[in-house]
């Protein structure tokens, strides 16, 4: 056996994702994870913002959220997040998970009802933290 290190490897990512999907399907029968993206484009067709994540049975996760500098604070991010949550709920998700560094947008998620469930101080460097959030799409009975 040989152990290798490297940089970005889309083929490896695709293979690992497929292998994990197979493993997960054995552990949790039913539909596997499905990607979910939401985009906003301007009148010229240029990307204004986007949100990328997944749904998997009762859970949804947000992996990437971005809004163009000139549109931050305009409501585009809120529109993207609301649309993501609506589609996730339509797919059967009951909760959404997301992480944000303290220098990114933790306040944005808190304003939208996300609550902090974990904080990893010192990531990526001292003075910052990786903050993990959860939001219930349906209130528990």
How many strand units? 6
Report the top-level CATH class: Alpha Beta
Q: Note the main sheet.
A: 6 strands, mixed
Give the uncertain stretches in residue-range form. none
Q: Give the spatial strand order of the biggest sheet.
A: 1-2-3-4-6-5
How many distinct folded domains? Answer: 1
Could you tell me how far the N terminus lies from the C terminus, measured between alpha carbons in angstroms?
A: 52 Å
CATH superfamily: Gcn5-related N-acetyltransferase (GNAT)
Provide the fold topology.
Elements: H1 10-27, E1 34-41, E2 47-56, E3 59-67, H2 76-90, E4 95-101, H3 106-111, E5 115-121, E6 129-136
Parallel strand pairs: 3-4
Antiparallel strand pairs: 1-2, 2-3, 4-6, 5-6
Keywords, separated by commas or semicolons:
141 residues; alpha+beta; Aminopeptidase; six-stranded mixed β-sheet; 3 helices; 28% helix
Structural write-up:
The chain has 141 residues and is an alpha+beta fold. The protein is built from three helices and six strands; from the N terminus they run αβββαβαββ. The chain has one domain: 3-Layer(aba) Sandwich (Aminopeptidase). The protein has helices at 10-27, 76-90, 106-111; strands at residues 34-41, 47-56, 59-67, 95-101, 115-121, 129-136. It has a six-stranded mixed sheet with strand order 1-2-3-4-6-5. α2 links the parallel β3 (59-67) and β4.
């Amino acid at each position: 056996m040989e152990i290798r290190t490297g940089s970005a490897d889309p083929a490896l990512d695709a293979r690992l994702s497929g292998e994990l999907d197979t493993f997960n399907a054995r552990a949790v029968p039913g539909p596997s994870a499905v990607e979910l993206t939401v985009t906003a484009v301007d009148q010229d067709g240029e990307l204004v913002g986007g949100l990328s994540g997944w749904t998997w049975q009762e859970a949804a996760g947000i992996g990437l959220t971005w809004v163009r500098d000139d549109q931050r604070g305009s409501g585009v991010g809120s529109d993207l997040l609301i649309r993501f949550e609506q589609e996730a709920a339509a797919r059967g998700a009951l909760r959404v998970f997301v992480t944000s560094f303290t220098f990114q947008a933790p306040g944005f998620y808190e304003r939208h009802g996300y609550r902090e469930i974990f904080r990893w101080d010192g990531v990526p460097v001292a003075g910052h933290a990786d903050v993990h959030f959860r939001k219930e799409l349906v209130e528990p009975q």
